[in-house]
Each structure stands twice: as structure tokens, then as C-alpha cells.
TrEMBL record:
InterPro entries: Beta-lactam-related, Beta-lactam/transpept-like, Diverse_Enzym_Activities
Name assigned to this protein: Beta-lactamase family protein
Species name: Pediococcus inopinatus
Annotated Beta-lactamase-related domain residues: 77-376
Top-level taxon in the UniProt lineage: Bacteria
Gene3D superfamilies recorded: DD-peptidase/beta-lactamase superfamily
């Protein structure tokens, strides 16, 4: 009798484990069919297993003890103190000279509640600085002969008003009359985000061919990438950028649970308060994380960001000729392929949102750069000026 009872209990346990395995497998299948970045499968419109709730990033790997500084690093820190010292900057600052990192240090807290410090390997949502990478992926399709810069948006989205007047080139350079008033409040897959954008985008004819920073251009470019390749944007980004460059501190914010060092973003409330007090962690909605498709939902460390940007500028992804064509700037802000032409010798890029801010200044040969990634955005942010000043000092030989 006892033997039969134990057999029955064992059978129930095995059946329970089998049911649990089927459930997990089904959820994975649903994620795959929805084009979730975990799977890179073909996308449908909605991802019903996700809930659009706010989410605060928290680093899993907490560093509470500041690293020991070398003599060179201490000297750098002293020189930089008037610019980023004394609570003037929260995040990680990387300085590259002649192709070599000479300073990469964290400032402030990655998570104040846990007393975790920002470090050289801390990860941040890079926001709009992702657009230069999306632009490069588009140019790869041009180089492969699958797309032309003179192609019109109407070839991919004929239902969009004014699409026959908009070229791929004008979208890359933010010179279209495309606008969108409200993004989806639901969590959508990569295909769903692009489809939603196509259905809700508006065309202002009077603004066409004039520069205006409208991320909707890059959302639709992601949709075009997906149409051409039959793959999700996340698959393309992973296999064309993350894998070949062996990036270890890069991922998508929807996969924040996989990140080890993703810093918690902070935003003061009220916004008029311009002190650094860490009182309010920012909760980014899940829908927003997906809506930033191709325009700002990648997280990176400063080192990984520099590695990608240097590779783009040094023509590791494209031919030298196509790299130059990609970054041909136009408009009042001299924007081309995700980068601003700061001067004849350098580029600039910037991103802000969800309690984070990012900035880079880099020489056109990719050899000298200042990368600043911050998890604390203030209304009166000084990051742009700080980045420009440090880069100027670098080029003048002060570091």
C-alpha cells in the first residue's frame, strides 16, 4: 500500500513538472512569435504577456567601495574636478586619447538606496545616441544593394500621407514633415511599434525638407529594416553590432533583468529642484521601453558605446566611402546619420529622457573622444557643456 502511495506521489510530481515545463515553453513561444528581443522571431503586433507597468532599473552587481586609483587616474580626477567634481555629474565619464582609454571613472550612485556606486562598467540607457547605430544598419542595406538613399518612404509605407515626398536620406537627416503626437500606451513588439507609427504618423507638408528632430523618422526606418530583412530590429542589432564587436555591457532595456550593472535613473521632483538628492527614482513604463525602438532603448557602458562609435567612424561596418556618405550633414543643425557635425574635425551626439542623459564628442577618425553617460537628469543640466569643455581640453593637450 505504501509503495503504491509513493508511486502515486512521484507520478503527480512528474506530471506537475511536465505541466510547468509546458507553461514556460508556451510563454517562450508567445514571446518568440511576438518578436520579443529574447528570441528575434518574426513579430506580431502585441505582446500580451507583458504588462505596461513602470519599472525601475536596479544593478544586480553592487559596488560600495570606490576603486583604488592609479597615480595617473588621480591626476586626471584633479584636473577634471572643476568641471565634474563636487556633485556636478552623476554617471560614468570616459576619455579616449589617440585610440586608448586614459580615464574611465564612475561618479555618484548607481543605486542610492543600496549605496551602490557608479563604476567604469556601469550601464545606462543611451537614448538618442542609439540613432547613429540604427543609421549605420540602414546604410548596410544600402551597401548591400537592398535599399537606396533616394528610395521613397512610399515604397514601404504607401498609406502614409506625403510618403512619396520623403526619401530615406531625408529621414536619416531629420528633414521630413513627419510628426506623431502620441505613442502607444500598450506594450508592442518591434513590428507592432513600427506598424503603430505608420498608422498614427502625421505629415506636415510645410515642414517637409526642413530640419526638425522627430524620432518618428527612425522608428519608421526600423520598420523598413524589418521589411527588407524579414527579421526584427533586435535580431539585426544583435547580430550586426553586439556579436561581432563582442560587447559585454550592452543590451535592450526590456531585458533589464539580464543586466548586471544597469544604474538606477533618478529625476528630481519637482523638476525645478536642481540639486542632486536621489529622492526620486524614475519608473520607465514598459510601453515606453518598446516605443523607443531604434531610437533609444539600448543600454551600454561607456566602453561599449565608444567601441561601437569608433568602429562606425573607422569604417569597420561599411566602406570608407559609404561611411562618409552616411554622415553627410544637412540642415541648420548639421545632422547626418545620427550624428551632429560639431566642427570639420569632430562629431557630437546627445540623448535625454527617463531620468538619464548621455553625450559624446568624438574626432572624425574615432581616435579621441569624451563619452558621458548619466543616470541623473537635472532640468538645468550641464552635461553638454561639460562634455564640450573636456573634449576641448583634451584636444588642447591638457590631459
Amino acid at each position: 500500500m505504501k509503495k503504491n502511495l509513493w508511486r502515486f506521489i512521484l507520478l503527480m510530481v512528474l506530471l506537475g513538472l511536465g505541466f510547468w515545463g509546458l507553461k514556460i515553453g508556451y510563454q517562450s513561444y508567445r514571446m518568440q512569435q511576438a518578436g520579443h528581443p529574447v528570441s528575434f522571431f518574426r513579430a506580431k503586433n502585441k505582446v500580451p504577456i507583458h504588462k505596461p507597468r513602470g519599472k525601475t532599473f536596479r544593478p544586480k552587481k553592487i559596488v560600495v567601495k570606490p576603486p583604488r586609483l592609479t597615480q595617473q587616474t588621480r591626476q586626471f580626477k584633479r584636473l577634471l574636478s572643476p568641471i565634474v567634481g563636487k556633485n556636478r555629474f552623476v554617471g560614468t565619464l570616459l576619455i579616449v586619447k589617440n585610440g586608448k582609454p586614459v580615464y574611465n571613472q564612475g561618479y555618484g550612485y548607481a543605486n542610492y538606496q543600496q549605496k551602490g556606486l557608479n563604476t567604469a562598467n556601469s550601464e545606462y540607457q543611451i537614448l538618442s545616441m542609439q540613432k547613429s547605430m540604427t543609421a549605420m544598419l540602414i546604410m548596410q542595406q544600402v551597401q548591400a544593394g537592398n535599399l537606396r538613399l533616394t528610395d521613397h518612404l512610399a515604397e514601404f509605407y504607401p498609406a502614409i500621407t506625403g510618403a512619396s515626398q520623403i526619401t530615406i536620406r531625408s529621414m536619416l537627416n531629420m528633414q521630413t514633415g513627419l510628426r506623431i503626437k502620441q505613442l502607444s500606451k500598450q506594450v508592442l513588439s518591434s513590428q507592432g511599434v513600427a506598424d503603430y507609427a505608420a498608422r498614427h504618423v502625421q505629415f506636415v507638408a510645410a515642414k517637409n525638407n526642413q530640419w526638425s528632430y522627430q524620432p518618428i523618422n527612425y522608428t519608421l526606418l526600423a520598420g523598413i529594416l524589418q521589411k527588407i530583412t524579414g527579421q526584427t530590429y533586435y535580431h539585426i542589432f544583435t547580430h550586426h553590432i553586439i556579436t561581432p564587436l563582442k560587447l559585454h555591457n550592452t543590451g535592450f532595456v526590456m531585458q533589464a533583468d539580464r543586466a548586471l550593472r544597469l544604474s538606477t535613473p533618478y529625476l528630481n521632483q519637482p523638476i525645478t529642484d536642481n540639486s542632486i538628492n536621489y529622492l526620486h527614482a524614475y519608473h520607465e513604463l514598459a510601453a515606453s521601453q518598446h516605443n523607443e525602438l531604434a531610437t533609444g532603448n539600448v543600454y551600454m557602458s561607456t566602453g561599449d558605446f565608444y567601441k561601437v562609435t569608433q568602429a562606425i567612424l573607422q569604417a569597420r561596418f561599411l566602406t570608407a566611402q559609404n561611411t562618409a556618405i552616411l554622415h553627410e550633414a544637412s540642415g541648420i543643425c548639421q545632422y547626418g546619420g545620427g550624428l551632429y557635425s560639431k566642427s570639420p574635425t569632430s562629431y557630437w551626439s546627445h540623448g535625454v529622457g527617463y531620468g538619464e542623459e548621455s553625450g559624446v564628442m568624438i574626432s572624425r577618425d574615432g581616435q579621441n573622444a569624451v563619452v558621458m553617460l548619466s543616470n541623473y537628469h537635472l532640468k538645468k543640466s550641464a552635461l553638454k557643456k561639460q562634455c564640450a569643455q573636456i573634449y576641448q581640453n583634451l584636444m588642447q593637450g591638457m590631459y
